[in-house]
Amino acid sequence: MARFRSARGGKKSASVFSPALKKFDDYLASEKPLQAPAEKLFQGPIADALTHVGQIAMLRRMAASR
């Protein structure tokens, strides 16, 4: 299982994030209607979330290389 370090230096399981991602994936795969067009979802909040994940990963790598 993937692991990452928290800001305090301890280890925390990625399983905290995985259930929410699985639930979102299941909803997208279902026949349930979306509350907004898919284009707006993926060009807005989802794109923002992926950008911030990348920024956090970059900052963690930079901090670890000191």
Amino-to-carboxy terminus distance: 27 Å
Helix fraction by DSSP (H/I, runs of at least 4): 55-70%
Envelope shape: elongated
| Biggest sheet, spatial arrangement of strands | 1-2
**Low-pLDDT ranges:** none
- Class by SSE composition: mainly alpha
Mean pLDDT: 80
Q: Report Rg.
A: 15 Å
The count of helical stretches stands at 3
Oligomer: single chain
Write the layout of secondary structure elements.
Layout lengths: L2 E3 L5 E3 L4 H12 L8 H6 L1 H20 L2
Antiparallel strand pairs: 1-2
Task: Give keywords.
single chain; 66 residues; mainly alpha; two-stranded antiparallel sheet; 3 helices; 2 strands; 9% strand
Describe what you observe in this structure.
- There is one protein chain.
- Strands 1-2 form a two-stranded antiparallel ribbon.
- The protein is built from three helices and two strands.
- By secondary structure, the chain is mostly helical.
- 58% of the residues lie in helices and 9% in strands.
Give a short synopsis of this structure:
With 66 residues, the protein is mainly alpha-helical. Helix content is 58%, strand content 9%. It has a two-stranded antiparallel sheet with strand order 1-2.
